[in-house]
Amino acid sequence: xxxxxxxxxxxxxxPGLATLFLAAKGLGEILVVAPSxxxxxxxxxxxxxxxxxxxxxxxxxxxxxx
Length: 66
Hints:
The protein is 15% helix and 30% strand. The protein is of the alpha/beta class. A four-stranded mixed β-sheet has the order 1-2-4-3, covered by helices on one side. The radius of gyration is 12 Å and the shape is globular. It starts with a strand and ends with a strand. The model has no long low-confidence stretch (mean pLDDT 90).
């Protein structure tokens, strides 16, 4: 069974993320990992001075700070 990672830069609460998750359901083991808030335009930023925190938001849904 394939493993599918779904992510975005709009944040864990973005409606498109949930839509993509529902569209991929049944295609494999799905893991959703997205920033805790909108991070558009920050794709090349690096978190170096603060710890990165993972917060479980549900089964196989993780919010990432940083």
